[in-house]
Amino acid sequence: MLYYLLTVQKETGKLIENGVVLKSIVRVSCQQLSQNTFGMKIVDVLTGFKFIAEKIKQYEADKSQNLPIRF
């Protein structure tokens, strides 16, 4: 699903710069997919929405990374 969504953004010229993908440490690695194809940084967070939300808040506050997809 990530590949599809990022592919559509890339094809339509909507892929953001300085993008980051957050994933739980228990998920299969998608490093190569995102970094090589889309130039996204991959950040592992502990399992649970709480940890993902903390990282999102950090990025929104310091503007250091951009989240390409939000649901």
Order of H and E elements: HEHEH
Unreliable spans are none
Structural class: alpha+beta
Measured distance between first and last alpha carbons: 12 Å
Strand-residue fraction? 5-15%
Major pleated sheet: 2 strands, parallel
Instruction: Please state the oligomeric state of the protein chains shown.
Output: single chain
Radius of gyration: 12 Å
Number of helices: 3
What layout of secondary structure does this protein have?
Elements: H1 2-11, E1 20-24, H2 31-38, E2 41-45, H3 49-62
Parallel strand pairs: 1-2
Describe this protein's structure.
With about 70 residues, the protein is α+β, with helices and mostly antiparallel strands. About 45% of the residues lie in helices and about 15% in strands. The protein has 3 helices and 2 strands; from the N terminus they run αβαβα. Strands 1-2 form a two-stranded parallel ribbon. Strand 1, helix 2 (about 30-40) and strand 2 form a beta-alpha-beta unit. It is globular, with a radius of gyration of 12 Å.
